[in-house]
Amino acid sequence: MKAKNLKKRIRRLEARLQKGAKKLARLKQKLEAPIQRKKQPLVLKPQVKPPVVKRKLNLSPERRAQLAETMRARWAAKRAAAAASMQKSPSGPEPLPQQ
């Protein structure tokens, strides 16, 4: 074998061995990491959520009044339905009919 090729093979082998040593060191470190974490006291950082910014609706005064009127009517209908159901069965839900 020529000296040039032999030197090249030796250099590659050394590089491969060095790479393997680095890999081995990294794996050992990963193995010992949980053990090191157990020894250290656990410090919890408070999680701060950014405040939710509500978008302001760009409504015209006429549209705002119309929506308010619609919602009042909806709420009134809901109250009326609740009052009617209370008068219909004050003792609770009706039993199912027997067949």
Walk me through the structure.
It is a single chain. The protein is elongated and about 105 Å long. It is mostly helical and 99 residues long. The protein has a domain at 1-37. It contains two helices and no strands.
Note the topology:
Elements: H1 3-39, H2 61-88
User: Which spans of ≥5 residues are poorly predicted at pLDDT below 50?
Assistant: none
Biggest β-sheet description: none
Computed Rg: 38 Å
How many extended strands? 0
Q: Tell me, rounded to a whole number, the average pLDDT.
A: 82
N→C terminal distance: 101 Å
Shape: elongated
User: DSSP helix count?
Assistant: 2
Share in helix: 55-70%
| Class of secondary structure makeup | mainly alpha
User: What pattern of helices and strands is seen along the backbone?
Assistant: HH
Strand content: under 5%
What keyword list fits this structure?
single chain; mainly alpha; 99 residues
Q: TL;DR of this structure?
A:
With 99 residues, the protein is mainly alpha-helical. The protein has 2 helices and no strands.
